[in-house]
């Protein structure tokens, strides 16, 4: 059975990450992805990139239609998508060169086969956890 990294490993992931692509970011303040993006933009050391083909910005920050359109390869891909879309997100992540270091699936997302495939390709995986909550608890603002 697959398991998430322990607290020490999570803290290391959060500290070493510099750039984060938020796939499924929203410009709607009522959406969880907006709250996570907004918190991290205000409180974290991360450079954030919103990825969503249906919006042009999150607040004052530009949004990009696809991971491949980002100006950098992010250290982490943080995913807010439906479970059935996860294989496509992984394929887009693995197509980046160099590859990101981390794939983070937000709360409610768990796919052990996907995690194994991502790990086999060299990514560290975190599933069913909120990046905002873990950052606040393990790193602080």
Structure explained in plain terms:
The protein is α/β, with parallel strands linked by helices and 141 residues long. It has a 7-stranded mixed beta sheet, sandwiched between helices. It has one domain (7-139): NAD(P)-binding Rossmann-like Domain (Rossmann fold, 3-Layer(aba) Sandwich), CATH 3.40.50.720. The model has no long low-confidence stretch (mean pLDDT 97). The longest helix is centred in the N-terminal third of the chain and has 12 residues, at 32-43. The relative contact order is 0.21. Helices cover 34% and strands 19% of the residues. It starts with 6 loop residues before the first helix and ends with a helix. It is globular.
């Amino acid at each position: 059975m697959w398991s998430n990294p322990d607290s020490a490993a999570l803290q290391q992931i959060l500290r070493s990450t510099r750039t984060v692509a938020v796939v499924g970011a929203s410009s709607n303040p009522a959406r969880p992805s907006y709250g996570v993006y907004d918190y991290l933009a205000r409180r974290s050391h991360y450079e954030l990139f919103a990825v969503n083909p249906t919006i042009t910005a999150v607040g004052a920050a530009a949004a990009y239609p696809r991971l491949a359109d980002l100006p950098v390869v992010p250290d982490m891909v943080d995913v807010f998508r439906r479970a059935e879309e996860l294989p496509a997100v992984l394929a887009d992540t693995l197509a980046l060169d160099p590859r990101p270091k981390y794939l983070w699936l937000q709360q409610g997302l768990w796919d052990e086969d996907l995690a194994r495939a991502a790990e086999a390709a060299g990514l560290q995986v975190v599933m069913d956890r909120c990046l905002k909550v873990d950052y606040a608890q393990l790193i602080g603002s």
